[in-house]
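tool_call: predict_structure(chain=1)
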Amino acid sequence: MCDLMPASQPAEKIGKMKKLRRTLSESFRSIAFKKEDSGFDEICVTKMSTRSCQGTDSVIKPLDTIPEDKKVRVQRTQSGFDPFEKPASQVKRVHSENNACINAKSSSAGKESPKLRRHSSPSSPTSPKFGKADSYEKLEKLGEGSYATVYKGKSKVNGKLVALKVIRLQEEEGTPFTAIREASLLKGLKHSNIVLLHDIIHTKETLTLVFEYVHTDLCQYMDKHPGGLHPDNVKLFLFQLLRGLSYIHQRYILHRDLKPQNLLISDTGELKLADFGLARAKSVPSHTYSNEVVTLWYRPPDVLLGSTDYSTCLDMWGVGCIFIEMIQGVAAFPGMKDIQDQLERIFLVLGTPSEDTWPSVSSLPHFKPDRFTVYSAKKLRQAWNKLGYVDHAEELASRFLQCFPKNRLSAQAALNHEYFSNLPPRLWELQDMSSIFTVPNVKLQTESGDSIQVCARRNSHGKASSGSKH
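tool_result:
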């Protein structure tokens, strides 16, 4: 229990106590920033604003050993702050002036670079800084929904284009839990094939996630080049997808919502994983949230049948669907009605499962044999003829599209599949943050259309529809 301050206490000490109370009430949780080589900051959570930024994370437990309702707790900091320990409404706004914790990686002697001092020096309070709303200029709206609005923006600090996901906060609800999860996951992921989170801006009314700007996605790219992509480009896109997945799977993180709309494509051809398991929000860029409902097309049969025993094989089914769609030019399993219709389309090609082909399938909540027509398995090229035109493509696709989850090929194993045998060996030696396009002679081939650019989006059934460009 706290004692009251005596009335005779000196005014100076009273002022200090008031300041301390204000600091404790407003800054008991703080967000700090660690300088990155790219000129942006990696988010670093600290316990108090007066402590130094640690920038390290504890070991993440495998998702398969964690109860489903706890799987979002995949990453915490050594500083002791875990955004999942308290309700989102208790995540408070803090004063960025008291929270700045910027460490230059290149400062081996403990000296700050002139550029870093210019961004953070208190002698120039009006200059743009990271972590502040006025550090970014909104250029145009890319999408809007009940959860968030996405803008194309520009950093006033370094002039780079960014994508601003502005999440509206409700006073009684606090910060949306899904936004905290996305930020918590992405802040620790540094890979050339994963969308980069640059900054977080927290105000009373909004939470803004600042991402690198990537102007199109695989869905739009395939719409621009109908009939299937160039086989060499399919191989490079798939290699990058597997490279990014292998990185997150090794860290026990599942994506859970792989589909072309969530794979961003840069103007140089880099593929980047985005939207990490967020059912209500889209990672950037996106046209409209309301029209882009979660589709069943890339959902594996075990999940469709009610399984909640997720592991990395959950993502690998989506890889197989996307692989076929890139080659064939149409979705692999475009269900148009419901889960029943989706499963029928899968079983028509892969065969209706039984205890012999899929151990314990009868124990899944929604598996009732009398509801499904009994089909025998076919060769994949009978359903998608273009698989037969590319060496080893059919065999690799069949390793992904296994109804029994444990039979699916892992991302790391897939990278060593014979399908990729004609790629330069240096691709397997790259550092995480190095693009595959830094390797000589690795480049996208010209498609039967214009260069990469934004095009018509797909509606909830996967058909093209007109939309704004950005």
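agent: Residues 231-249 form the longest helix (19 residues). Proceeding to next step.
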